Amino acid sequence: MSSSDPDIPFSNTYTHLGEAFYQSAPPAQAQQPSLLLWNDTLAEQLLLSDELRNNSDLQADYFSGSLLPEGAEPVALAYCGHQFGHLNPQLGDGRAHLLGEVLNKDGQRVDIQLKGSGRTAFSRQGDGRCALGPALREFIMSEAMFYLGVPTTRCLAVVATGEEVYREDVKPGAVVTRIAASHIRVGTFQYFAIRDDIESLNNLLDYAIERHYPQIAGSENEALAFLEAVMQKQIELVVAWMRVGFIHGVMNTDNSAISGETIDFGPCAMLGAYDPGTVYSSIDHGGRYAFGNQPTIALWNITRLAECLLPLIDKDEKQAVEKAKGVLEQFHSDFESNYFTMFANKLGFEQPQDKDIECIVELMELMKNQQMDYTQAFVALSDSLKNNIESNTSALQENSKSKEIVNKLGDWHSTWRQLLEEKHIEPSSAVDLMQKSNPVVIPRNHHVEAVLKDCEESGSTQAIKDFLLVLRSPYQSLPTTHLYQDSPDDGDKYYQTFCGT
Ligand code: AMP
Ligand code: MG
User: Fold this and answer.
1) 35: which strand partners?
2) Nearest Cα to 241, choosing from 374, 109, 112?
3) Pick from 288, 272, 269: which is nearest to 280 by CA?
4) What string of H, E and C letters represents the secondary structure of 333-353?
5) CB 3.0–4.6 Å: which of 174, 271, 379, 410 could bond 135 by disulfide?
6) 133, 119, 120: which is closest to 167 by C-alpha?
């Protein structure tokens, strides 16, 4: 790269959609920016300049909003959304600034957005700020999700601002830089639909197709094809969440990205003991966003998207509704087939038949009744197979937890082994598939809290970095992985998360 190249090769397209889509807004200057976390693998992927990658002062300045990089056009995006089922007609980026887009190493267009960077035209009563804890938490969780193989936005940096923010008490402030395939949400479509702005809606659809679903451009009914494509991505996303035990916690339509990435990590958490009714968010009183309710909510959100698209699907409203219904009616069967295939993979086989599904359902009931740890249970199963292959049984004997889990499963374990035999699946290939489908480590809630507390008390991010090292290898044990695999004594029964970002 020559010295005249910009530090960040911005190329902005979203603002070309017109002023209805955003408000120009300069980020606030931070009092005393200091870099806490930097994601250099991601920086390289984004083709940021070597100069920037090697200069932490410049990183702190750019990614706190204190210095605007050349080519950045900071804007706050307009959107609305259903929050806990209730429509809020005007949300928008109240504390986030989209600096612009870059084409990454793979030629994909991604957004670079600051969050916690001050008030905008959409701030309503909010202060435009973000507390340090939630910023660090988003970095940890999104990085873990990425390496778990779940579609997700990522974090490039966390910069402390040197300022105080006022939440339930006084907290240090921070800016987190988010990288997303885009920030178009179901709520972005809702924003124009409820304003009857069909022209903007149409432009947004064209833009979203070109950016995220180019394969459907030119199809007979683009709006309908788009609905179907977004629905499939949401199905894949929720199935991926459920594979690793992720609970988003606040699946409002404004937190549902059209790209199919996990976005907005507010009160998210990881499932401890298996129970589909699990809710950790302190504000989710009715369990709307419980672990097992996520598919239902994904369909609910996609149905809101369908409503927005009706005028673009067919000029005749009745016809439009019929066509949209035709797509939405596919949700259940498509979801189920994805979901049970995912569980079959977790158990070492592909393409589940009816009998296999019974076996899966039976396992889930056992796990729920015995309050088994979701992650540990599947690791125990693959350990048990592996042990059988390696005549040497030391691995399992050493891991008494695994043994205990397998014992608890009793007859089910033999039924499963029989099933693999009937399918003529070599134990070694079953183990292979299981090890790719079942993480040995996840960002367990109590460990996430512990490293955040450590950082708050010591001012050092070392504990977070040590944890991240392990989280970046979730399917393979590293020498320190065992430090993060334990479940808390209460199985996270009393764990609570807060939105207070
Ligand atoms: P979230 O809960 O982060 O998904 O945010 C929901 C809405 O509230 C979005 O429109 C945010 O921009 C806005 N919001 C959240 N926190 C703040 C804040 N501290 N200041 C201004 N707006 C905020
Ligand atoms: Mg949000």
Assistant:
1) 159
2) 374
3) 269
4) HHHHHHHHHHHHHHCCCCCCC
5) 174
6) 133
Three-state DSSP at 265 gives coil
- Residue whose pair of structure tokens reads 């109240």 in the numeric block: 94
| Other beta carbons within 10 Å of 212 | 23
Residue 242 CA, ligand 1 centroid: distance in Å: 26
Q: How far is the CA of 342 from the centre of ligand 2 (A)?
A: 28
| HSE toward the beta carbon, residue 56, CA cutoff 13 A | 9
The residue extents of the domains of the chain are: 14-183, 220-338, 352-501
C-alpha count within 13 angstroms, C-beta hemisphere, residue 176? 26
Q: What is the pTM of this model?
A: 0.97
Ligand nearest to the CA of 94: 1
State residue 389's pLDDT score: 67
Helix (H, G, I), strand (E, B) or coil at 101: strand
Long-range contacts of 416-424 (CB under 8 A, 24+ apart): 416/347, 416/359, 416/363, 416/381, 419/349, 419/355, 419/356, 419/359, 420/348, 420/349, 423/349
How far is residue 324's CA from residue 303's CA, in Å, rounded to a whole number?
A: 9
Q: Report the alpha-carbon distance of residue 212 to residue 185 in Å, rounded.
A: 12
**Distance in angstroms (rounded) separating the CA atoms of residues 399 and 456:** 34
Cα(9)–Cα(289) distance, integer angstroms = 38
Q: Is the CB of 93 under 6 A from ligand 1?
A: yes
pLDDT in tens, 456-465: 999 999 999 9
Map residue 103 onto helix, strand or coil.
strand
Say yes or no: CB of residue 91 within 6 Å of ligand 1.
yes
User: Is 264 near ligand 1, meaning CB less than 6 Å away?
Assistant: yes
